[in-house]
Model the fold of this input.
Amino acid sequence: MEPESIVYGSIRDWPSTDPEQCRLRRAVNRRALYSLPQGEGWPFLGREMFSCCMDEGVYQTQIIHFGASYRAVEYEWALWVRHFEALLNELYWTSAVVHLETELNGIHTFRWETESGSHSPHQRDLRMRCAWERDGGVFS
Done:
């Protein structure tokens, strides 16, 4: 059996007291998610792996959550990150976290932030940090 990698995390929008602004941002975010490929046509990111509450079920902050199982995606991680950052460039968000759990190399946590504290579509101020947590894996 080939090694399995689990990728999961969340993308968080920022809260607002303006309901119309919130609805607009959530609609833009949903359109970006719906534009992802679905079915067998997605090697890295696909529509089925993302979910978020509609306007109901959201107190102030929209949370987009996601998860997928891959065959040893860590060997193509730079490409996965490139696809994820392309998606982030289409969204409104304030922070994003991705957890990569691998059978051989443990758990890695990646965090994206912006210089300004919030990101609007097509801004180019992404910053990523990686923390490697040695939980699990063959050598634990």
About this structure: Residues 4-133 form one domain. Residues 106 and 137 are 5 Å apart (CA to CA). Helices lie at 19-34, 77-88.
